[in-house]
Amino acid sequence: MNTIQSVCVYSASSTKIADCYFRAARELGELLAHHGIRLVNGAGNLGLMRACADACLEAGGQVTGVIPRFMVEQGWQHPRLTELIETEDMHTRKQTMARLSDGVIALPGGCGTLEELLEIITWKQLGLYLNPIVVLNTEGFYNPLLKMLEHAAEEHFMRPAHLGIWKVASSPAEALGLLYSTPLWDKEVRKFAAI
Fold first, then answer.
1. Rounded distance, CA 147 to CA 67, Å?
2. To the nearest 10°, the Cα dihedral for 115, 118, 122, 127?
3. How many CB atoms lie within 10 A of CB 13?
4. Spatial distance between the Cα atoms of 47 and 107, rounded to a whole number of angstroms
5. Residues 6+ apart with CB under 8 A from 38
6. CA angle 76, 80, 68 (to 5 degrees)
7. pLDDT tens per residue, range 13-43
C-alpha cells in the first residue's frame, strides 16, 4: 500500500457545469480531509477547483494552492487556502504541483485540465513521475478521451503497456482507493519509452 500524504487534483474552473460534477468534487475534498491527505491544486477561486478545496477545508483538511503570479494579479486565487504558492509561470506551476504530490486525481475539465492530465501521463511514460494517476470519470465524462488513448495504442502510437499509466475510477472513494493500491511506476520504463 502506498503512503499518500498529498494529492494533486486537476479540475475545472467553470461554474456553468452540471451539479453532478460539483458533488463529486466536494465528496473528494471531504474524503481527502478525512484521510488526512493534503489537497494540492491550482488555487483557483471558481468551479470544481473551489468546490473541492472548500469541502476539504470545511472538513478540517489542508489545501496547498499553486498559482502563477499573473493569475494572482488578476485576483483569481482562492482567498483562504492553508498555503498559497506563487510561481513565475504555468510550467513551473505544473512542476510544483507534481513535485508536492504523492498521486494525481483528474476531475472533469476543459483544455487546461486535459492538458495537465496528458502532460503528467507523458511524464510518467518517460519515467519523470512515478506516482499513481487516477482519472475520476464522473458520469462517463472521460470516455471519449479514454477511447482515443486506446485507439492510439491500437494504431501503435503508444505501447499497450502505456495504457497502464493511469487508472480509471467512477467515484471519489474508488479514486482514493486506487491511489493507495496502484503500484509505483518503474523508472526503468525510460529505456522503453520510445516506440
1. 31
2. 100
3. 17
4. 11
5. 5, 6, 7, 32, 61, 62, 63, 64, 82
6. 35
7. 999 999 999 999 999 999 999 999 999 999 9
Indicate the length of the chain as a whole number.
Answer: 195
How far is Cα 184 from Cα 1, in angstroms, rounded to an integer?
Answer: 10
Alpha carbon distance 90, 135 (integer Å): 22
Q: Which amino acid is at 122?
A: T
Question: What is the pTM assigned to this prediction?
Answer: 0.95
Write out the DSSP string of 52-96.
HHHHHHHTT--EEEEEEHHHHHTT-B-TT-SEEEEESSHHHHHHH
Half-sphere exposure at residue 189, Cβ-oriented, CA atoms within 13 angstroms:
20
Chain centroid offset of residue 17 CA:
18
**pLDDT, mean of residues 133-137:** 98
Q: Is 137 helix (H, G, I), strand (E, B) or coil?
A: coil
Cα(9)–Cα(33) distance, integer angstroms: 13
- Compute φ and ψ for 187, nearest 5 degrees: -65, -20
- pLDDT over threshold 70, residue 104: yes
Report pLDDT for 1.
Answer: 87
Q: What is the DSSP letter of 37?
A: P
Which helix or strand (DSSP H or E) is residue 133 part of?
A: strand 133-136
